[in-house]
Specification:
Elements (H helix, E strand, L loop, with lengths): L16 E5 L5 H9 L3 H7 L9 H13 L8 E7 L2 E12 L3 E8 L9 H16 L4 E4 L6 H10 L3 E7 L8 E7 L2 H8 L5
Parallel strand pairs: 4-5
Antiparallel strand pairs: 1-2, 2-3, 3-4, 5-7, 6-7
Helix pairs in contact: 1-3, 4-6
């Protein structure tokens, strides 16, 4: 995973935020994030480390997804980039084209969390998912006691519609989850507050 020593952004130029489909050059970052989390990070996101595939299997699975035609995908990943460097990702799972998807968010670099970058990258990703898969509805279900993810989704303005006990993915523990409705107009308004 590249070290982002310029990520303090102390210079006058604001960071450039972008998203793009996950690419082969991003795999080391995402694999390290899931296969070598700190105990605190695994607990915060509800990751069951015993269910995480090996790095080799994860790389193989992600390469299959990267190469699959769009109509064959049940999950899809967008890399979150700052100044062109991947620093996290959003995944869309349980995709029902022209209907539904379940969105996840992950900032790979602990030193970039809580700095206000996530909301913009998350909203860019949500709008891309809506367009890419012609969706009517997206939900996001962070662990209920994950402070940063819940604070971010509330700050953007997505409505909390349900709290329930479940596993948010195939590599998650069963825990209390908050379900947010990821509304397209809320994401658009966050990115373009003066747009009508």
């Amino acid at each position: 995973m590249p070290v982002l020593n310029h990520m303090g952004f102390g210079n006058a130029r604001p960071p450039e935020f972008s998203i793009r489909p996950l690419a082969t050059e991003d795999l080391d970052g995402i694999i390290a994030y899931f296969t070598r989390p700190s105990k605190a990070d695994a607990e915060r996101m509800g990751l069951d480390i015993n269910r995480v595939p090996s790095a080799t299997q994860l790389r193989a699975d992600l390469n299959v997804m990267i190469g699959a035609p769009p109509d064959r995908l049940s999950s899809f990943v967008l890399a979150w980039c700052i100044d062109g460097t991947a620093i996290g990702h959003s995944s869309l799972k349980d995709i029902v084209p022209s209907d539904f998807g379940s969105m996840h968010l992950h900032m790979w670099h602990a030193n970039l969390r809580g700095k206000g970058y996530g909301p913009r990258l998350f909203c860019l990703s949500a709008l891309d998912f809506y367009e890419r898969f012609n969706l009517k509805r997206i939900i996001c279900e962070p662990k209920a006691d994950n402070p940063m993810a819940n604070r971010m989704l509330k700050k953007i303005g997505f409505p909390l519609i349900l709290t329930h006990v479940a596993a948010s993915s195939e590599i998650s523990v069963v825990c209390e989850l908050n379900r947010y409705e990821i509304l397209r107009d809320v994401a658009e308004r966050y990115l373009h507050p003066h747009a009508r």
